[in-house]
Amino acid sequence: MASRFRSDRRAVLAGLSALAVPGLVRAAEPLRVFAAASLKPVLDEVASGARLTYAGSGTIARQVAAGAPCDAVILAATDWMDWLSGTGTVTAIRPVARNALVLAGSEGSGPVRLHAPDLIERLGPGGRVAMGDPMSVPAGRYAQRALETLGLWTALQPRMILAENVRAALAYVARGDVAAGIVYASDATAPGIAVMAAFPPSSHAPIIYPGAVTRDAPAKAATFLDALAASPALTAHGFQAV
């Protein structure tokens, strides 16, 4: 299995190189990429030569709008990208990836129905659930909407721990600080994490990752986004192709 994983990883890296991302890995002036925190595993692998900044999409959008040095930006929600576009800061917006929403627990956590009595019983007395803060984190907004659609928000809201980004919510789960977390399907591929339930796609808006380049970005910024959207690294890390 380990040998196969190493082989798949080499294929992903070779595939991205073959897609002609000039200077991405060994650039004299590294490409400056601001990205939603949930993209960290895949970008750390295929774009390690770039200057990578991760945070919640709302935080990223405000930083870029305020003039943070950035060439390419990838968010986890179209509404934040629409807002950023309205500031005149970015151009050439295109979808890069898709994702899904799941309820995750520590390794060994069995499946559970997305039904209030079942969830409350599984959480146990005082059991908490982590998710991104809906005020600034797209994963949190998707989660709140999904829980509302399924009639679960009222029962679970008192048990919520709101995190600054979805990777922070995942960290709560990994450390055993909470009984479960609502994260992206791509996050649930991390070691020591198990999917307890998948939220129906109809329970929330489509999870689309839009990418864009800033007004003064070099041409390689747009090439980078196109190559990433076509890279098998995304699906290898649990994302869905656009």
UniProtKB/TrEMBL annotation:
One GO BP annotation of this record: molybdate ion transport
Positions annotated to bind molybdate: 38, 57, 139, 166, 184
GO MF annotation, one: molybdate ion binding
InterPro entries recorded: ModA, ModA/WtpA
Superkingdom field: Bacteria
Keywords for the protein's UniProt record, in alphabetical order: Metal-binding, Molybdenum, Signal
Signal peptide location: 1-27
Alphabetized Pfam families for the sequence: SBP_bac_11
Gene3D superfamilies listed in its UniProt record: Periplasmic binding protein-like II
Family per similarity comment: Belongs to the bacterial solute-binding protein ModA family.
Quaternary context: The complex is composed of two ATP-binding proteins (ModC), two transmembrane proteins (ModB) and a solute-binding protein (ModA).
Protein known as: ModA protein
Source organism of the structure: Jannaschia aquimarina
